[in-house]
Structure formats: C-alpha cells, structure tokens
Amino acid sequence: MIKMTQAFQKVAAIRGMNDLLPGASARWEQFEEIVRGWLRGYGYRNVRTPVLEHTRLFARGIGEVTDIVEKEMYTFTDALNGESLTMRPEMTAGIVRASIEHNLLYDRPQRVYSIGPVFRHERPQRGRYRQFHQIDVEALGFAGPDVDAELIVMLARLWKLLGLTDVRLELNSLGQPAERAAHRAALIEHLEKHRDILDEDGQRRMYSNPLRVLDTKNPAMQEMADSAPRLFDFLGEESRAHFDGVCQRLADAGIEYRLNPRLVRGLDYYNLTVFEWVTDRLGSQGTVCGGGRYDGLIELLGGKPAPAVGFAIGMERLLDLWEQSVQVDQPAECDVYVVHQGEDAQRLAARVGEDLRDAGLSVIVHAGSAGFKSQFKRADASGARVAVILGADEVAAQTASIKFLRADAQGEAAQQQVPLAGLADVLNNKG
Ligand code: ATP
Ligand code: MG
Hints:
Layout: H1 22-40, E1 45-46, E2 52-54, H2 55-62, H3 67-72, E3 75-77, E4 84-87, H4 92-101, E5 110-119, E6 131-140, H5 145-162, E7 168-173, H6 177-193, H7 200-205, H8 210-213, H9 222-226, H10 237-252, E8 258-259, E9 271-278, E10 287-293, H11 297-300, E11 308-314, H12 315-325, E12 336-340, H13 343-358, E13 363-365, H14 372-382, E14 386-390, H15 392-397, E15 399-404, E16 416-419, H16 423-427
Parallel strand pairs: 1-5, 7-8, 12-13, 12-14
Antiparallel strand pairs: 2-4, 3-4, 5-6, 6-11, 7-9, 9-10, 10-11, 14-15, 15-16
Helix pairs in contact: 1-5, 5-10
The protein binds adenosine-5'-triphosphate and magnesium ion.
C-alpha cells in the first residue's frame, strides 16, 4: 500500500522576530567584541538571568500603569501549575531579582551587565521589533552622582569606539517621590483644566499616571504638555545638588547635553537622573539608549534598600546606526582555505588543517571533491587570505603549494611551494 504524505506547509518566523544569518551575525559578533572590551574597561561583570520570570515581578517592578505591563508583555499560563509567566520585556527587574535572591550586594556594590533578547508585543517597524536585544548595564548599590555621570561618560566612549558622531544626550531629573507627589498634584490640576483636548490614553491616565500623559506623541496635546508645570521646579535642595553633581562631571568630561524637562521614561521606577541618547538618523525610532537612577526598586522588590542606576541600549537600533555611519568590513570566514585533488591529498588536507589550527590559524578544508576551479571559487568567496593547494605532486614531495588570494598580499609570488613542516610558520609570516 502506498502511504500519501501531505506536503508540509512551510513555517515562517513570527512577525517582528528576526533571524540573524551568518553575514549579519558576524557583524553582531564584531560589535559585541567591542562592547565586551568596553564594559571590561569599566569593571563591569556579566550576569545572565532567565528569559522567563513570574509575571508579578514585572507588574511590580516596571509598574502596572506602563505601556509595557499594560499591553506589551508576552504572558502565558504555565499549563503544569497554573502560574502566570512572562517573557522578559527588559532586564533590570530580573537582574534586581537575582541580586536580591543571591544577596549579591551583601558586602559591596556591584557593577554588572547582561546582553540578550527581550520581548515586547509592539507593532513591528524599523527599529521596533517583538524580539529585540539589549545591552543592559546596572550599577547596583551606588548612590552618588559620580556613578550616574560615569555611566554617561562610558556611553560617550562607546559611541567614540564605534565611530558614531550623530548621537546626542538628553538629560532630566525626576527628583524624589515626595517631590513627584507635589508635582503630580499640580499636574493633575493642569490636566483637569485641559480635559477636553486629552485623547483616550490621556483621559485614562490623567489620574493613574499623569506624568506619562506628557510623554504623548499626539500633536494636538503638545501645547498642553509644553505649558504643564515642570517637575524640575518642584525639586528640593538635595535633588538639585545631585543633578548639579551630574552636570558638573559631564562638563568635566566635555560632554554636551540638552536638559529635557519632558523626559520621563516609560518605566515607573526611576528617580533623580534620567537620560536618553538619541539620533536623527533612524527615523522615528531614534532612541538608542535609555537609563537612569532607580533607588527605590531594590526595596520595592523585597530587597534591603539600596540605590542603583543603569541603562539599556537597543542593539538593533545601534547596529543600524553603526552600519549607516561607518563602513564595516565583512570579516573573512577563515585565514586559510585548503583545496585538494585526489583521495590521498584529501586525507593529507585534513591533517594539514589540524596542524595549521594548532598554530592558531582558522582553516576551512574543502569538503568533498570538486575540480580545482570550483574549489578556488569557494576559497575566494570565503575571504581567506591564502589558499593551500594539495595534489598528487605535493603528497609525493610532502610539500604544499600556497597562493595568496587578497589584493593586499599582491607582493607575494603568485604561487610557491613550501615543505609541509614549515607551512604553519610561512603562513604566520615567521618563515
Ligand atoms: P520607545 O520609546 O522607543 O518605545 P522605550 O522607552 O520603550 O523606547 P526602553 O524600555 O528604555 O525603551 O528600552 C531601552 C532601549 O531599547 C530603547 O532606547 C531602544 O533603543 C530599545 N527598544 C525599545 N523597544 C524596542 C523595540 N520594540 N524594538 C527594538 N528596540 C527597542
Ligand atoms: Mg516602548
């Protein structure tokens, strides 16, 4: 009997979630190498927390009345025990949870970072995806403006390392809870006066999160937002001193900024310093990094009270900007590509490949058998600096022919024969 199998319907990736294939991924790796070196330069150490957390961590840590918690989280019920779980929409809450759970701050403050995917159910467009990646940097247990400033200076260094010039800094202070409460009362009064021009979101939030109403992108509400009482005018002496401390240190470092009293950030937990780095080169998704101080969060999540400050970089946006701003060369797949003809040569090629790897070279040995011409095509496409050629003559003489493939090595003889024993040294320019 003949069994009919139904053709399998091709499966595509989920909308807003991107594949990174070798070409693009190589660029990400280059980028991450720069980033890890940069982080080491300031003593930051890596942490990795789970992608899944209990939903209530984010509801509490980010705030119930935020875009993220209200409508952007991927939340589902664990079928085994009925618990509500959420794919992390950001990393701070998870890192703070872990630091409390493992008592990370018991004897000293900690500088930590994490790099990885986060998930938000948003409308996909350029610079806005449903799975995207963040570089998340947190200075846990530090209270002073020196650390706020150091984080900002650190970011300026990263832009320099990447060769970016078109990013600018926006800065604000959100003060302390009591100052915010006084401002909030004044703000609600202002919103009540303009109730008729508030959109649906604005109406809904004017009491629950009035500060967020000012963060609107609705043009009809701009004038109302511009004329609203400014939180900055409600700051007490200490908050102002902290802010001045940050500004002084930025001036010391020669970093320019724009004071943006409307900068409130989407998350509830910030106090004092908040900042964003923005660019005009990415259209409307121009914020590449956002951060600030969150002195209340550790206690809010059940830890021993401790101050903290941090930021998150959107990697897709930053890479997009990097590629637009600087010519980034595609790295070669290997240093050496080994081509061969005949079974003996193929077996020798495998051995030569291992020897060269022992000497620290990266090597692709042509797999299978094919004509020299098509093997050389592959060698060329790999970006290798040099091809090693093994045929019957080379096997007999225990030599290899080498051919430099790149323009910058044109000075070399077109093709030369080298004894196998000295091959690695020649390829490492020691021969
Ligand atoms: P936006 O106002 O653009 O929605 P946000 O305030 O929600 O940003 P944060 O929570 O501060 O963003 O996240 C830090 C960074 O992550 C942002 O500055 C941005 O670069 C990036 N980012 C945020 N949401 C997305 C997304 N959906 N896709 C890609 N990158 C994103
Ligand atoms: Mg957002």
